[in-house]
Amino acid sequence: MPWLETDGDAVILCLHVQPGAKKTGVVGVHGDALKIRLAAPPVDGKANQCLLKFIAQQLGIGKSSVVLISGSTARSKRVRVAEIAAATVRAQLKPAS
Q: What is the pLDDT of residue 97?
């Protein structure tokens, strides 16, 4: 999947985020990125905090394992998730049906 890269014992997620949505959730694929809507506004890093917390909850891991590596002020973001298998990420980050 173009939005998911492996990096040793971690994965890198290429994301397209839409802050200010009614509720937080995975929408689908947007180009080469996984699109995620966030209920938080894009103010004072609230959307980034919401994104990292959402990914950690969806994957069942601690928030400290999820790190924003680029795109802190952009809609296109790259997130590193430590010590997790790519297959687990694919299974857990599916669009809500």
A: 60
Q: Does a structural domain hold residue 97? A: no
What's the domain count of the chain? Answer: 1
Residues in the chain, pLDDT under 70: 96-97
Domain that holds residue 82: 4-91
Q: Does a structural domain hold residue 25?
A: yes
pTM above 0.70, yes or no: yes
Please give the C-alpha separations between residue 89 and each of 1, 43, 45, in angstroms, as whole numbers.
Answer: 11, 28, 24
